[in-house]
Amino acid sequence: MKILLLTIIVLSNLLLLPTSSIKAANSSTSIYENVNPKLIYPDNHGKSFISEDEFYSTLDKNIYEEYINAAFSMRQKITFKDLPDIEEVFNQKTRNAYKKMNLQKQTHVDPNRQVYFFASFHQNETEEFHKFVVIDAETKVELMGGNSYHKYFNPYK
After folding, report:
1. What is the rounded distance in angstroms from the CA atom of residue 47 to the CA atom of residue 133?
2. Which whole number is the average pLDDT over 63-86?
3. Residue 151: its pLDDT value, please?
4. What is the DSSP secondary-structure string of 54-119?
5. What integer pLDDT is reported at residue 17 of this predicted model?
6. How many angstroms separate the CA atoms of 100 and 85, rounded?
7. How many CA atoms lie within 13 A of 149 on its CB side?
8. What is the pLDDT of residues 97-143, one digit of tens each?
9. CA atoms within a 13 Å half-sphere pointing along the CA-CB vector of 8
10. DSSP state, 47?
């Protein structure tokens, strides 16, 4: 009788699990998603997307287009969390003295979300132009972007 009673208690506890616990146990969401309910762009690092060059060739040029005769351009498919590092590489190669990108306000994007990073740099005798855009790989929505302009002083003149 005691064994039957204990078996019923154990079974009832298993059957009465909250549905949120079952969902959490069965889902492949990241810890970040469970902590951040405002997440619009969840983790998609397990999905496959076209290469950055293929994506760029289909991209609406009103959203982003590399400078004509650019001195340097970058096209990368990366995770969102790697944006500050790749932007820093772009800035080092173009000698752009900006602070490292801060993603702390971008709480709606999972750090493991795949994005495309495009950046372009053009320089002439008197001016420098920098621009970049970050586009979500899955939805093709522009997440971030920016540009800058500087007067250029040629130290070799």
Report:
1. 21
2. 94
3. 81
4. HHHHHS-TTT--PPTT-SEEEEEEEEGGGHHHHHHHHHHHTT--PPPP--TT-TTB-TT-EEEEEE
5. 43
6. 8
7. 3
8. 666 666 777 778 999 999 999 999 998 888 889 999 999 999 999 99
9. 5
10. S
Could you give the CA distance from residue 78 to residue 81 in angstroms, rounded to a whole number?
8
Whether the Cβ atoms of residue 108 and residue 40 lie closer than 8 Å to each other: yes
Note the pTM of the prediction, 2 decimals. 0.72
78 exposure class (CB count in 10 Å sphere: 0-12, 13-18, 19+): middle
Q: Contact, 103 vs 83, CB < 8 A?
A: yes
CA gap 116, 8 in Å, rounded? 54
Q: Please provide the DSSP assignment of 33-60 as one string.
A: HHH-TT-SB---TTS----HHHHHHHS-
Q: Which residues touch 124 (CB under 8 Å, ≥6 apart)?
A: 152
Neighbours of 132 (CB within 10 A): 22
